[in-house]
Model the fold of this input.
Amino acid sequence: MAGDCEDYSIMMAACIKAVGGKTRIVWGKEHAFPILLVASDKHEYNLKVKPLLNLLFTDIYEEDFGVVQNEERIWLNFDYTKSYPGGPFLNKEVIKLIKI
Done:
């Protein structure tokens, strides 16, 4: 399989949407990556999502996950520059947010 960050982002967003997930593609300076909706608000994220990520990735996470809070919703970074979901953002500069 070959492609760049834009190809990966489009493929991941399509796969996530195909199984009923909500996703966005973030276009930044010289990079694109998908984000996945994981909680409707910070309370739900802290109660349900963060404990699960801590359980699954205990040896990886020392700081907070790569999340975006937008319109009270919590989105998880699904960038391929890390080997696990929710890794730190490669670049936090957002030029365009594409709704899928």
